[in-house]
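Renewal narrative, Specific Aim 1. Our central claim is that a sequence can be written position by position from structural information alone. The example that follows is taken directly from our test logs and has not been curated for this report. It begins with the structure tokens describing the chain, in the order in which they were read.
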């Protein structure tokens, strides 16, 4: 009599906390349009994930979200099913596995077995088998080999090639290339690759020392080093900014140097208003980065800042950023329907809502969420806000039109359209960026992550005429 092999006893899946947290963030991002930058830190705190695991989860989440489009194509090459027919939670688990296999140094066995364990827990045993089979196929070659296999050649399809290689949607590659300028030679290709590559690297942590409220030396004593361009900037090479007292007190803040530069340029622009300056306006102030800096500068000049923000919770953030500085005001209002007299402000900033194509490195999921239609949809609001900004400015006063997008439809085209009314003129913004190279042909300024290490901030500086 032969004994049938005993069935393996059922073992409950035990995914590790770091990978489960990464999956839960990806799921929240896909399912309810959550922002990874908000969900991830809260979840790491709530689950008390230890710092080493937290760093692993952060890399897993950010890297996977940035490269999700490319990873989906690799998965597609490893299954008979079209990606569209694979459930999003399965694709999320697969993308996490692919990132560990191809872009992190996780050993193949650990990457596959830990991801399959995760799949058993969140998808069930049946779908975990599918995950196992796909990941084993993915692990047969490295990322470079996969990219060679799935990307069209540069010669046949330059945009398609770069889209796959650097994991950006094709329309964004096209838009960024248009913004960067002419294409067609090796130099242009290198610049484009540098820009797309910069989008895939987390930015350094830039701090601003709000003038009159804190000295840079206090930030240096807390571990920061000098920034690159802005007179108020420091860079934090490592550690948590919240551990710095000046940041907890609101005397300093985390702020990209590009944002600091455009706000400072407005503050330093020459104005030809009659008499002394008394009022500045920030028309789109939330969450208050530029308003915090402008308010600090304005205080030193005995000028008051009015900060306007349409959304209440963001207006609250602006109040925090301005702190207890007296004679500044924050109101929750629609900037296109001014609740103030026209022509009364000496300096006005319209940092308008935009597609955010210049800050993709900061928001790992945003490149896949944005749609080309978004840009056209924002155009009317951008024009209306710029018109209000101009109408609110005294003759001879300065207006800064700012976006964190380099897309021409959100930058020059908007400015040119609004300028046709003849109420303002463009002035050369470049001299207001002393020591900053590669500012282009002017008169407006476009900053770039690959050239300046900042977000791709755009500034058109105008003067109110007549
Ligand atoms: C690009 S953000 C501004 C960033 C801000 N200047 C900073 O440096 O932190 C644009 C802001 O404009 C606000 N906004 C959108 N439409 C608005 C409107 N009609 N009036 C006033 N604010 C508006 C958005 O809620 C958002 O907070």
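The sequence written for that structure reads:
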């Amino acid at each position: 009599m032969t004994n049938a092999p005993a069935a393996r006893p059922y073992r409950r899946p035990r995914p590790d906390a770091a990978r489960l947290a990464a999956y839960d963030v990806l799921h929240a991002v896909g399912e309810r349009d959550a922002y990874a930058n908000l969900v991830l830190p809260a979840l790491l705190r709530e689950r008390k994930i230890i710092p080493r695991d937290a760093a692993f989860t952060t890399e897993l989440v950010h890297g996977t979200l940035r490269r999700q489009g490319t990873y989906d194509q690799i998965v597609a090459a490893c299954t008979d099913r079209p990606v569209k027919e694979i459930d999003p939670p399965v694709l999320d688990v697969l993308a996490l596995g692919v990132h560990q296999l191809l872009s992190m140094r996780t050993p193949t066995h650990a990457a596959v077995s830990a991801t399959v364990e995760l799949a058993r827990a969140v998808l069930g045993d049946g779908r975990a088998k599918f995950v196992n089979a796909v990941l084993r196929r993915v692990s047969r070659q490295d990322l470079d080999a996969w990219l060679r296999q799935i990307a069209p050649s540069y010669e046949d399809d330059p945009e398609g090639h770069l889209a796959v290689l650097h994991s950006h949607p094709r329309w964004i590659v096209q838009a960024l290339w248009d913004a960067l300028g002419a294409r067609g030679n090796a130099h242009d290709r290198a610049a484009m690759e540098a820009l797309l590559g910069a989008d895939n690297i987390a930015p350094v942590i830039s701090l601003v020392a709000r003038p009159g409220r804190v000295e840079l030396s206090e930030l240096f004593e807390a571990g920061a080093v000098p920034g690159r361009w802005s007179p108020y900037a420091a860079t934090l090479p490592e550690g948590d900014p919240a551990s710095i007292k000046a940041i907890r007190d609101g005397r300093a803040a985390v702020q990209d140097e590009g944002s600091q530069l455009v706000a400072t340029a407005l503050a330093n622009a020459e104005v030809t208003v009659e008499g002394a300056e008394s009022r500045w306006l920030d028309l789109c102030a939330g969450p208050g980065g530029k308003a915090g800096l402008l308010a600090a500068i304005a205080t030193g000049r005995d000028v008051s800042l009015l900060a306007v923000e349409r959304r209440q919770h963001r207006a609250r953030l602006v109040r925090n950023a301005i702190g207890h500085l007296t004679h500044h005001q924050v109101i929750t209002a629609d900037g296109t329907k001014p609740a103030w007299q026209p022509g009364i402000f000496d300096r006005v900033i319209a940092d308008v809502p935009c597609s955010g194509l210049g800050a993709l490195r900061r928001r790992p999921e945003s490149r896949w969420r944005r749609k080309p239609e978004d840009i056209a949809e924002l155009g009317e609001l951008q024009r209306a806000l710029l018109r209000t900004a101009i109408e609110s400015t005294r003759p001879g006063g300065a207006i800064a039109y700012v976006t964190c997008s380099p897309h021409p439809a959100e930058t020059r085209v908007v400015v040119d359209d609004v300028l046709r009314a003849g109420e303002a003129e463009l002035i050369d913004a470049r001299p207001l960026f002393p020591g900053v190279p590669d500012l282009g042909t002017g008169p407006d300024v476009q900053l770039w992550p690959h050239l300046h290490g900042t977000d791709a901030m755009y500034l058109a500086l105008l003067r109110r005429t007549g």
